[in-house]
Every structure is written in C-alpha cells, then in structure tokens.
Amino acid sequence: MPVSTIEWIGDLDGYVRLIDQTALPTEVVYKEVRTCEEMWEAIRVLRVRGAPALGIAGALALVLGVRSSTADTWDEFRKDVENTAAYVGTSRPTAVNLFWALSRLKTVAEEHNNLPIPDIKEALLDESLRIIDEDRRVSHRIGELGQELIPDGAGVLTHCNAGGLATAEYGTALAALFAAHEKGKTIRVFADETRPLLQGARLTTWELQQAGIPVTLICDNMAAVVMAQGKVDCVIVGADRIAANGDTANKIGTYGLAVVAQAHDVPFYVAAPVSTFDLTLESGAEIPIEERPDEEITEGMGRRIAPEGTEVYNPAFDVTPADLIAAIVTERGIIRNPSKESILLALS
Amino acid sequence: MPVSTIEWIGDLDGYVRLIDQTALPTEVVYKEVRTCEEMWEAIRVLRVRGAPALGIAGALALVLGVRSSTADTWDEFRKDVENTAAYVGTSRPTAVNLFWALSRLKTVAEEHNNLPIPDIKEALLDESLRIIDEDRRVSHRIGELGQELIPDGAGVLTHCNAGGLATAEYGTALAALFAAHEKGKTIRVFADETRPLLQGARLTTWELQQAGIPVTLICDNMAAVVMAQGKVDCVIVGADRIAANGDTANKIGTYGLAVVAQAHDVPFYVAAPVSTFDLTLESGAEIPIEERPDEEITEGMGRRIAPEGTEVYNPAFDVTPADLIAAIVTERGIIRNPSKESILLALS
Questions:
Q1: Which of A327, B24, B65, B275 has a beta carbon 3.0–4.6 Å from B36's, enabling a disulfide?
Q2: How far apart are CA A254 and CA B11, in angstroms?
Q3: Residues of chain A with CATH 3.40.50.10470
C-alpha cells in the first residue's frame, strides 16, 4: 500500500497526521500536529520533507496558525495570515514549494476577504485539502504514465527518495514503480543510499518494501558496476527544479548517475509534476546550487568520520543537462528527448 | 611528514609498532604488538590495512609467532612455521599480499634449513625488514615518477586510501601527490569519502592534512559535479590487482569514477607497485569480485540506516577496463595507454 505521508484529520478543529521521517526506517511513528509551532519544528528537523510534501506542510501550518486568530476584521486577520506565513517560511527558507503553497493560501484569503473571518478560515482549510488532493491525483497520474516506461522484468535504478514520502502519497519516480508493480509487472529496484543524508537507504528501501517490490540497497559508488553487469534497464529519479530547456536540478549524485547511465546505454528518466518546471530559467546554469553544512557529511551518521578542520564541499543538488535525459514524465504526458520546444509544447 | 604505518622496533626480542587505523581520524594511536595473536587481531579488525601494508603485517606476524618456538630440529621448526603461517592467513583470508609475504618467508626458512634454529629466526626477521625496506623504496620511486603526471596548480581527485597508511610509508597514488608537494608544486586534492568504509574521509584527508596538502572532502556522488565545474585536472588511485591487459581491480567506486572522468576528458591514472600485476590473468573478467557483509553499509557508521531485512549488494571492489586508464605508474616507469604489449614491455 502506498504511504499516506501527511494528511488533515477532521474539520477545522482537527489536526495534521504525518509520518515522522526522522524515525524511519527503524520505526514507523505517526505524529499528530496541532499547532503551527509544532508544524514549524516538524518541517525544520525534516520530520516531513520532499518538495510536494513541503507545500502541503506549509499550507497546513498556516491553517493551524490562523484558525485560533481572534481577529474580528479582515485587516486584522490579514495581518495574522501575513505574520503566520512569514513565520512558517522561516522553517525551510530555501524550499520553493513551501512559499508556493503559502502564497496560494494568501491569495485565497484575499479572494474571500468579504466573508466573515470563520468562513475565511474554512476557505483556507479547503484550499489546503485541495492542494493535497491535487498532489495525490498528480502523483497517481505520473505513476500511470511513467509505468509505460518500465518494461516487465526490468531492473530499475533510483536515487534519493522520490516516493510517497516526498508527496502526499505515491510519489513521482517511485509512483512509476508502484504503478508498474500494480499492473503485475515484475521489477527489481536498485536503490542508491544517497549520501550524505541517506534518503535512499532510509526511505526508498522502506517504501518499496512496504509495497512488496524487491529492492537491493547499494552505495552510490556501486551504480556503475551494477550497470556494467547488465542489471539495470533504466534509471528513474525525481526533480527539484527543471529549467525551460529540460536541464534538471535534483539531489546531488543525479548528474553523475546520468553520465554513467549514458556510458552504459541505459535510458535515464525524470518524473516530476508540471509545477517543478521553472520556465523563467533558460537553462540549468541559472539554477543556484545550495551548499549545506559540512557536518551532514562529517558527522551525519552518529560518529565523526573525518579529522577536525577538514574542508568539505557539500552541494545539496546538481544539474543534469537535458541531453542526458531520455524522457521527463509529468501528469500531462511523457516528454521524450526534452528540449525547449518539446517542453513548451507539452506544458502549453 | 609521511606516516610510518608499521615498523619493527629493536632486534629479534623487539616488537611491532603500528598506527591503529581504527582510531583515525579522531585519534592517532600507536599500538605496540608483541605476540602473533595480537598481530592477528590487528589485521582482522583493520588496525592495519592496505595491500602492501598487509604483506608486511603478515611477515611480522610470522616472526612474532615463531621467535619463541622451542623447536630443536629443522623438521620441528618447519612445522611451527607452517602452522603459524596458516594461522596468520586466517586473519584476512582474501588478502593476496598476506599470502605472498608468508610464502616468501617460508621460502627463506627453507633456504636456511641447514642453519641453527636461532639463525633461521634471524633470517626471517631480516627478510621481513627487507620487505619493509623494499616497500618504502618502491613507494618513494612511484611518488617520484608519478609526480611528473601532476601539473603545478592541479586539482587532483582520489578515491579510497592509497597513501602511506596502505604501505610501510608514503603510499602509491598519494605518493605522487606527496612528491609533487615536496617539489614545490601547488595542488588541491578532492578526496572521495569512499563508502562504505570511508577510507577517503577517515584516512586520506588525515594523511594529506599531515603533509600540509590542501584537501576537500566530498561524497563519492559529488565527483562528477566537481569535474563538471572544471576543478579536476586528473584522477589518481591505487590498485588491488592489475590483469595482464591493464584492467585494474580497485576499491568499489573506482570504475564509476573512471567512466565519469572520461566523460569530462579528465585523465585517469593508477599508481601501483609491480607486485600488483597478476600476469596470470588475461583480463579483468577473471578477477573475482569479493562481496562483503551487508552491515558495512547498513550499520557501518554507528547507527542503522536501512530497514531490517533490506537486501544489500556490497562488492568490495570493481574492475576498471584498461581503455579508461591513461597511465599506470609503477616503480619501473610510467606505462601510458596500458595494454598487454605495453605492460609486458615495461615489466620485462
């Protein structure tokens, strides 16, 4: 069964129920979140993560924050919405989807500013549930389309976690694998552990096990040898941002994997919702590369692994040029040989 | 200063002094080893590791084991030598150099079988010291020759640890970097952390820091992006075994790195003593790939990182085809474009 990563339980007096991803894979802990501050903390420490899931988390954090607002007038309430949104944004200041969702809710509040305050609160919850519902439908559609690329009997390699845990449920890259499995196809997945934060080892193996799909965990540096042994028929990964020409930013290690896949004539696929495209960027060269703390590498797994004072380079993601990507799977269809032209055609 | 990894202190009543590599990088602990059983344990738990260093460790373990032999006759002493060698071999049954050194010492014992037992014991210690001395000279010669491949101002990427800690001192791949540095060349090294056992993070960064060479630690999956940024002028690694045609077995991840280097037009060099060549093997296809315990990946860093029951593939090394290797540096010279012919010519 696909995992339900984050959901709202009950009416406006209800609460958020989410899988605490910091406890995975050794424990499956569902956390009930009832205040905006608790949600802020859950985002901050990565109890919830993954681009689409962070959009949902941000929207629900705003609902939790303003539902107890004592504002009597629109002007007062708007101030509460603005302040709460600004606060929620500080939990993961680089997460694009968080700001996208907050902005969407602020617009909804504006559109309903002639209604009584309780009704605006209801409208914000409704919009959040709509975001969740849309995300679910997009993920399932990506799965349905993406599974066409996965042959029966295929060995499939994936990197990081582009599964249900990164979305409301079902995922993007993993959605294609879940759908292939549900169609009765026999597949075998190789999951890169994905240093430094090990989302592949911790999350992807767990999700595939839950779904009953055979999975073999490897270190990132073993992908090439598994391909050389002929065990990989395709690679499929998610995306953080896709430029107008198809260049794709994704978790660090994706680019090297695409280079190695090309050298072994293994098709390399990206699966991502249309909302991942940023058509304001001509190419991947314009995507800024976020650098993260040294300690993620040197102390990330419970014990120091490098001498004190070691200089570290820790980019959070890299950019794979479009010419290494055989196809991008979106909810609107599969874009083969992605280019500025084919992407514009597919998204228009 | 290069590190002195393993040495014999004193006369036949002396002891082995080695750097306990399990304590690195957080502590530099020198361990004094006075019995064969202690040496067995040091090899077993990787206090000493690296192909050439294991040869030395094996020889010294045998000396420690037989120096207290109470045998009066050659036949009795030979039995002690055989039994001790067999016992030492069980410490790392797959380490080729261990058996090479034990065999060399057994031959020396045979050659001196007409001498009094105390003199045979002396001959075994002498031979062990000769192995250490040879290893030192070979490493320095590899460094001297290898540094010619490292341009002043170069960015150099290396994988695993082919440094002094893998030999008596100075190393193989790192020897070339030490020598370049000593010649006054300015270099910048990128060290792959080298999952699963992190020899790059733990050992290579430490050795380069000790030598005053600037080093940046990266995860294995970041090598491609560092190359794409133009920061890498060459890659240099060690080797575990080299077939007659130049195909090279080395730490897992080496092959993928060679593929990525080729895609970026970055020359890929191997540095290894002549003793690493196994001319009985036509090609890399004949080199068996050792698989190591799952726990090295799932629990290797102090905390479980994958669900219980996760299937794991953990090859200890991979094979890089000769056509991805620009040159092999040996103590007898640099073999450019390695092939059966060029290797035979260089080694004959």
A1: B65
A2: 56
A3: 144-347
